[in-house]
Specification:
Elements lengths: L8 E4 L10 H7 L4 H7 L5 H4 L9 E4 L5 E7 L11 E3 L2 E3 L12 E8 L5 E2 L8 E7 L5 E7 L4 E7 L4 E4 L14 E3 L5 E7 L37 H11 L1 E7 L4 E8 L1 E6 L5 E7 L9 H6 L3 E7 L4 E6 L7 H6 L6 E8 L6 E8 L6 E6 L7 E5 L3 E7 L5 E6 L5 E6 L9 E3 L10 E4 L1 E3 L5 E3 L1 E2 L3 E10 L2 E10 L4 E7 L4 E8 L6 E8 L5 E6 L4 E4 L14 E10 L2 E9 L10 E7 L33 E5 L11 H21 L3 E11 L1 H12 L5 E5 L23 H6 L12 E7 L10 H12 L4 E6 L9 H19 L35
Parallel strand pairs: 41-42, 41-43, 43-44, 44-45, 45-46
Antiparallel strand pairs: 1-46, 2-3, 3-6, 4-5, 6-7, 8-9, 9-10, 10-11, 12-13, 13-14, 14-15, 16-17, 17-18, 18-19, 20-21, 21-22, 22-23, 24-25, 25-26, 26-27, 28-32, 29-30, 31-32, 32-33, 33-34, 35-36, 36-37, 37-38, 39-40, 40-42
Helix pairs in contact: 7-8
InterPro entries: AB_hydrolase_fold, Peptidase_S9_cat
GO molecular function, one term: serine-type endopeptidase activity
Protein name: Peptidase S9 prolyl oligopeptidase catalytic domain-containing protein
Amino acid sequence: MGIRIGFSEVINTTGSLLFTATLFTFAFSLFHSSAANAAEYKKPSPAIAEFVNEYSVPEALVDPKGRWMALLDEAPLNKTSTVTTKRLLGVEFNPLSTMHSDIPRYIQVLFKHIDTGAVISPKGIPDGKILHPSWSASGRFLAFILETEQAAHLWVFDIKQKKSRILSQFPLNGFTLRKPFEWLADGSGLIANIKVNGRVTKQAPDVVSISQSPLVVSSTASFNNTDKVQFGPVQQEEFKTYAFTQLYKLSLQGGALAIGQPAYFSGFSASPDATNLLVAMMDISTLPQMQANDFKEQNNSVWQIWGMRGVPLFEVYRPQKTLQDTDRLSQPFVEMTVRRAFKWRADKGATLVWAESSDSDDNESLYSISAPFKRTPRHYADTDGRVSHILWGDSQLAILVMNETNGKKAYYAFSPLTPNRSRVELRLFNDLKNDSKRELIFTKNDLGVDVLKVAGGRYLFVKGVNSHNGQDAPYLSRFDAKGNLFTPVWQSNAPYYEQVIDVISDDGMRFVTRKESKNNPANYFSRNLTFDTVEQLTKSTHPYPSMQNISKELMSFNVGSGRIVEGDFYLPNSFDPSNGRIPVLIWINAQAPIDKSEIKSPYLFAQQDALSGVPFVHEGYAVLNVHNLPLLSAQLQGEELAKQLRDSADVIVSTLIAQGIADKDKIAIGGHGLGATAVVNLLAETNLFVTGIARSGTYNFTLTPFAFGQDEHSLWQNQSRYLNNSVIFKADKISTSLMLVHGYQDKNKASFPVQSERLFSAMNDLGKSVKLVMLPKSGHIYTEQEEILHMLHEQSKWLKLHFEPLPTVEETDSIPEVLRFELPKPQEEFQYPSPWSQ
């Protein structure tokens, strides 16, 4: 074996074949011959390759009239862009499209008619990512941002004509405004935040390459001896470049009207009658003192009401800090008045409401002003405390949300027509437990504005999740704002997990749900409680057909000191206790699953991950996917971490052996990231495993000198901490084999590819059994399909090397009852308590 160009394998074995290679030669050869690269990628068995197909439930967006449902396929995680993101004042964004990095992105949209089942597949949408899909009030148009690598443009799809079209060739600017457009309430057009000059700056691909000439790199960071990130002159100029924009009114017929002059907009909102615009503009002179929170909370913004051509009609608020020094000195001293929480009344054409108080006053009052904004603002209502925001409903019911001193919110029902009359404190969230959830349901009113869904002037609709005995059960309720009472409307029932997506009838008796079970993927349904009917709207098939007969159970291990380690245990179809024990792969998950980490239910459909250990259940091995093994953290490091890892691993391995499942000589362990670091730690600290697989881990913390923080936490101030957590210094204690995998484009500062290179070099020189596989196109998280397939191929080959041949027959008298195998002996005869959750 030796260097293979493409996926690049370097191996040292302690058997008859011993290969030693310098890492310089390895790295240099990595990027030769693209033709050779394509030829060298391998694939695992079809059953394992199946896991590369990511399971994703389309997000459903029901139109305001309850007729159509947009089904949006989310872009796979970490495949959203190849452009390196930028961060300014706490905002991480794409510097070319200017869209925020954490916005959900979609790769496809379909439309499903809820009553007839008709399906529309839009045509003519170029390749790109769909962001911020948003229905018009009529439900005829869906607006969305189409983001490419170089820019983001506003598009609409016309349901009636079944056509997609771009609204403007002007690129959007989403840096200062997370969502840089909004519908006019009447649906006649949209307001959009546009790049001033539309200039597109190309960015070179962010990949490692071999230079053909001397390479000179200068540092870009300035010395900073505090943890506080400075917003210096360079960052301020960058901020000005990205934040300077122009507002436009875009009609559905393709017209584009500039609104006023370019400015540093931090917010805008059109009035319900679509005749006026509330705008917030940052005073750029305050940039040197601006902090991330100032930017987020719009503390340095001037608020004005404009006409639709940009003519200022009324200045609502100008913060004291934005006044020039000469202006402040010329004014007599008066107590400063603060205005905030600006919002258009939803039941009026153009009436703005805000909260107002003086600096010394703990209570705020509500004020309002109406078109044509020529009169003095009038007092609207008094409050006891500080206003958070107002939730508008209909002309009879709205909710005033107040901030309380304990960080919680208080909710008060009032009539928008008589706001100063007695208000009723609502017990909407008072009885809510920490593990339960509840949210109000919204709709659009006759003006086309988002409002609370209200029935009969007093009833609100609430969807939520009740948690009982550690299990979540979604529900729909009606809340009487006058009587302060909840009335159950519907609740999910076992063996399904079904949640309300949207309520589509005025009385709350007809709604759309998403329903799944342990063995059935999620699909959408329409429920009509009046006629007791249920119609299935989508028919998603099982994404992993080969997993349908695989046994899965939750295992819990008491590892001492009150600590419980949990994991999902998978058994292959071929497992028969009469044939003896089988090999086990224990996989360490560095984090909980992203999509359902907050949901606790035995009825969730199991999402599988090609990057976990689950695929190898198809090789005839048992797989334990551990959720919460102790990992390196600010609270757990050094010898204490090593002890907890040893204790946990010893209990897990001993239990699997005692249960009659695991062959003690054929147990492997693997992990990614911090999980990989734990793998190497365990191989050095124990003799429990026949081999290990470590992907993209951190093994030498002296190569990342700020891993534990700045100043006194840096390598130079706390060397022992970095040395004690660097498992490379334990390499001499590793007596079993190890396969290292790393993405060569890994830009994570703690896990540059050199981490695996150095560990490989150390183990190689120590005469250990070690293999290194480099994936030339992958970063810290592997997203390239051909490289994931090759990674699975390499892992499969490595495990077979250590696990085969599989045993044929071995008598055992200790089989878990829950797996419905041979009856076990009484539990008291086991050395360890049963880990099987009942």
